[in-house]
Amino acid sequence: MKILICDDEKGTCSELEELLVQYQAVKGAEFQIDIFYSGEKLLPYLEREGCPDLLFLDIALPGVNGVEVGKWIRQELMNEQTMIVYISSSSSYAMELFQNRPFQFLIKPIGRKKLFALMDEILKVRGRDMRCLEFQHKGKSYRIPYGKILYLQSDRRKLSVVTLEGTYEFYGKLEEMEEK
């Protein structure tokens, strides 16, 4: 599972990363964790590399704040698969976040018990919709849940994945997709 942490407080990032590493060890999960300290650094990464499975996102980031990042993910990238967990020292932002459809909202400090319960819930939910068609195109990774795929189309080596959100094209063989 690809996890990104975006918070301008380095201590919060380190604490979250350490708790996630502990969770991996205890539960046998596999995470790839990357850290960002600003929305300005995160946005180009998301555009270039694609969205993660899970994003821990501080709300009060300087410059591009967490609400704007979440809105950009949902509206500009049209990504509904990424689970966004907002983190903040204050609960006053909660109402603003609904438009971005977050999975959860956590008040700092987070702590082991709270994070472990959250990760158990996330893995339970992800388990229901984890089966995805995965492919790469122009250096970007894509994961499309099978439930969102209307149909696949093949024209020689060019495959088209048609979903309600749009069509994704890449090179491959239909037989390879059937094996997945």
UniProtKB/TrEMBL annotation:
The keyword Phosphoprotein is annotated on this UniProt entry = yes
Q: Per the UniProt entry, what species is this protein from, by scientific name? A: Candidatus Limivivens merdigallinarum
**Positions of post-translational 4-aspartylphosphate modification:** 58
Superkingdom is Bacteria
Record-annotated Response regulatory domain positions: 2-123
Main role?
Answer: May play the central regulatory role in sporulation. It may be an element of the effector pathway responsible for the activation of sporulation genes in response to nutritional stress. Spo0A may act in concert with spo0H (a sigma factor) to control the expression of some genes that are critical to the sporulation process.
**Which InterPro entries does the entry mention?**
Bact_response_regulator (IPR050595), CheY-like_superfamily (IPR011006), LytTR_DNA-bd_dom (IPR007492), Sig_transdc_resp-reg_receiver (IPR001789)
Name the chain's protein: Stage 0 sporulation protein A homolog
ATP-binding is among the record's keywords: no
One Pfam family name is Response_reg
Q: Which GO terms describe its biological process?
A: phosphorelay signal transduction system
Which controlled-vocabulary keywords does the entry list? Phosphoprotein
A single Gene Ontology molecular function, please? DNA binding
Q: Which residues form the HTH LytTR-type domain?
A: 133-180
